[in-house]
Design goal:
This protein is an alpha/beta fold. Helices cover 52% and strands 14% of the residues. It is built from twelve helices and seven strands. The strands form two sheets. The chain has a five-stranded parallel sheet with strand order 5-4-1-6-7, with helices on both faces. It has a two-stranded antiparallel sheet with strand order 2-3. Helix 11 (166-174) links the parallel strand 6 and strand 7. The chain starts with a strand and ends with a helix.
C-alpha cells in the first residue's frame, strides 16, 4: 500500500498573513501613486518568486529605483510576508510525523527559506519543502504538484493538499491530488483526520 502524504501551503495556512499596509505606507512616504510599487516592480516580484534573481539583486534594484536605503523597505516587506505562525495547525502537523509523509509546497520569494525556518522551524516540521523560488515554478502550474508528489515518493491520489487559494485547489485536483481549501483549523484538521483514517 502506498504511504499517504500531506502537503501544505505556507502563507494563509501555516502562517497567518493579514495585510499590514506596508506598501501603501511606502507609497505615501515616497509620494507615489497608489498601487505604484506593484506596477513598478511586478517583474521583480515574479523573478524573485521563481528564483531568477537573488535577494541582493532585489535590494539593489529597489534602492536604485526608489533612491532609498532598501534595508527598512525590505524589513517591512518581510514582516508582512512572515506574518505569525498558525501554532495550532503547526502543532497538529508536528504530531503526524511517522503517520504519513509530510511536505510543504509554497509560492515563495528569494530569502524565504532562511527566514521561515528561523521563525517557525519548517525544516523540522516536514520531510520536504518545495519553494517556488527554488524549483522555478509556481502553483497553480501542474508541474509544481508533480514535483511535490515525486519528492515525497507518493502517488497523487494518495496526497492531500491544503491551500487557502481556490485556483490552487482546483489545479491540485486536476493533477490527481485530493485537496481541501483552508478556511479554519477545525475544518482542516477534521479533513486531514478523515484522509488518514481512509488509508
Amino acid at each position: 500500500m502506498t504511504e499517504r502524504a500531506l502537503i501544505l501551503d505556507i502563507g494563509g495556512v501555516l502562517e497567518i498573513t493579514p495585510a499590514t499596509g506596508w506598501g501603501e505606507r511606502w507609497e505615501h512616504r515616497l509620494g507615489l501613486p497608489a498601487g505604484d510599487l506593484n506596477i513598478r516592480f511586478a517583474d521583480l516580484w515574479h523573478a524573485g518568486s521563481i528564483g531568477t534573481v537573488t535577494e541582493a539583486d532585489v535590494s539593489r534594484r529597489i534602492g536604485a529605483e526608489l533612491g532609498i536605503d532598501p534595508g527598512p523597505f525590505m524589513a517591512d516587506l518581510w514582516e508582512q510576508y512572515l506574518g505569525t505562525g498558525n501554532e495550532e495547525l503547526i502543532a497538529y502537523v508536528r504530531g503526524l510525523r511517522g503517520r504519513c509523509r509530510l511536505g510543504i509546497l509554497s509560492n515563495s520569494f528569494v530569502g524565504a527559506r532562511e527566514r521561515e525556518d528561523a521563525a517557525y522551524g519548517f525544516s523540522s516540521l516536514v520531510e520536504e519543502i518545495l519553494y517556488s523560488h527554488e524549483i522555478g515554478v509556481e502553483k497553480p502550474d501542474p508541474a509544481a504538484f508533480t514535483a511535490a508528489c515525486e519528492r515525497l515518493a507518493t502517488a497523487p491520489a494518495d496526497c492531500l493538499f491544503v491551500d487557502d487559494h481556490a485556483p490552487n485547489i482546483e489545479a491540485a485536483r486536476a493533477s490527481g491530488l485530493q485537496a481541501v481549501l483552508f478556511e479554519d483549523n477545525e475544518l482542516t484538521i477534521a479533513r486531514i483526520k478523515e484522509f488518514l483514517a481512509a488509508a
